[in-house]
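pasting for ref. prot 1 ->
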Amino acid sequence: MYLAGQENGQPRLLEGAPSVSAAFGGSGEDIAAARELSRDFLTSLQAVYGLPVSSRAMGMVQLVVSELVTNAGKYAPGPCLLTLTVSEGAVEVTVWDSSTTLPAILAPDPNRIGQHGLEIVMAVCRSFEVRREPVGKRMTAAVVLADDPGDDVAGRQVM
């Protein structure tokens, strides 16, 4: 694992909005390291910046990171880049990988075995976006940091 903004072997928050990045090769160990990086980042948001991070957000960010890094390792050759950034009361989880093939987001099917990852990501996030890049693609999911007083766990407004 290679960390951007590394200082003394530890991830360092980058300039501007709180952010951290790391490159991963796609192994099972990397998935665990990506979850650990997200947990450490969210913990530092509370300790250093005083930002509220609910326990739900802590779990959801780790889940989203795990799903997106797993998919990158499974479907794209080579490394992936994970970036976590705070924006508008949410953590944006961005994963870049080298494949230009856009993911298939399947309709919910309780009889299907597997391939529910993106379905889950879309259910727990405020927003989800996939963009094709000159090389590869970039997936970005936003998870709200604080629980919504209206009990909408994804922070979406119901109209």
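and prot 2 ->
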Amino acid sequence: MKIEHVALYVNDLEAARDFFVTYLGGRSNDGYHNANTGFRSYFIRFEDGARLELMQKPDMADAEKPLNRTGYAHIAFSVGSRARVDALTAQLKAAGYAVVSGPRTTGDGYYESCVVAVEGNPIEITV
């Protein structure tokens, strides 16, 4: 069994798609729109076949997203090397995204950083 995809509701569908395509190498489909409900979505496919569905619909609640909460914690992307973790973290910081940890080696041996992006949702960058 494998996870088929992970889905994330966002307010700004185009900006979310652009983030994952620009910074994390995703490839987007042309999108889907249900004219009856106003629901829109994009599937973003990554190099290894993993997929992320970005979704938006009218009148969504947008609750505060503190970093320490139950539920979704982060999406982790492996970029292949410590140098790439460092470079992408610096690129995202320069683009105005908040780096909340790292790059660093964690107590369990991961080399990673964590950036708050895409409407307050944490993105982990690891080797």
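The first strand starts at residue 6 and ends at 9.
Residues 6-56 form a domain with the 2,3-Dihydroxybiphenyl 1,2-Dioxygenase; domain 1 fold (CATH 3.10.180.10).
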